[in-house]
Amino acid sequence: MENIKMVVFDMAGTTVNEDNIVYKTLQQAINNAGFNVTLDQVLAQGAGKEKLQAIKSVLAEYADNHDKQLADSIYQDFAVQLKKAYEVNPIFPQPNAIELFTELKRRNILTVLNTGYNRQTAQFIIDKLGWKEGVDFDGLVTASDVPQNRPNPDMIFFAMKRFGITEPASVIKVGDSIIDIEEGKNAGCALNIGITTGAHTVEQLESAHPDRVINNLIELLAFIG
Questions:
Q1: Each residue's pLDDT tens digit, 15-50
Q2: Which of 101, 140, 152, 158 lies at a 20 to 30 A Cα distance from 118?
Q3: CA-closest candidate to residue 86, choices 53, 47, 129, 46
Q4: pLDDT tens-digit profile of 182-219?
Q5: Would you put residue 190 in left (φ > 0), alpha (ψ -120 to 50) or beta?
Q6: pTM of the predicted protein model
Q7: Rounded Cα–Cα distance for residues 97 and 101 (Å)
Q8: Which residues contact 124 (CB under 8 A, 6 or more apart)?
Q9: In the chain, what is the greatest distance between 2 CA atoms, to the nearest angstrom?
Q10: pLDDT value at 225 more than 90
């Protein structure tokens, strides 16, 4: 595909391998509040979402609970526990992430990371990986940077505005969850690509009707002219 100017990548599960730390911690925080949800349930309802919204979605679906104050309380516990988890657990780039970023730069295609994390958490992950904005990747957009989060396309539009891109048909979105694909579709991206390295299975990704599903980031190059 020609005339691609930017690729927007999700972080955890897509470009970052953190062994589902965030969703395991989310599960723990919810269950600490007296529930009994499984990791698969957390992934099914929460993957890719801003994390307070993920908690609300899990509680609404599996506990029939819509208590906003409870969700806020669980989120506060989650935020504390997640910081500790990221401090002690190793995280790595997904296979071929840096190689792909390098090749996109060679082709003058922007690499932007976007995430359902807030900026503080996202920056902590990036710092722990040793990645540098403007060197290893071009930009970061987080859930706390925009009014509405996935599946709304605000983060993609935010990135486009920052880099002066006016046509979503020159943007590709890559992510490991259904909501990533929905975000890209809602933005009107040229290609919306699911990847199997993270939260959702092939079958779950296919349910969102992506343009492609890949197993390794480097496969993206086959779709870019």
A1: 999 888 989 999 999 999 999 999 999 998 988 888
A2: 101
A3: 129
A4: 999 999 999 999 999 988 899 999 999 999 999 999 99
A5: alpha
A6: 0.89
A7: 6
A8: 83, 86
A9: 52
A10: no
| pLDDT interval class at 127 (50, 70, 90) | very high
Q: What is the DSSP letter of 96?
A: T
Q: In this structure, are residues 50 and 143 in contact, taking their beta carbons and an 8 Å threshold?
A: yes
Nearest to 16 by CA among 174, 126, 116: 126
Can you list the domains of the chain with their CATH numbers? 6-18+91-223 (3.40.50.1000), 21-88 (1.10.150)
Sheet holding 212-214, edge to edge: 139-142, 110-115, 6-10, 171-175, 191-195, 212-214
Work out the angle at residue 89's Cα, subtended by the Cα atoms of residues 145 and 42, and round it to the nearest 5 degrees: 60
* Percentage of the chain modeled with pLDDT above 90: 81
Picking from 13, 2, 19, the residue whose alpha carbon sits closest to that of residue 179 is 13
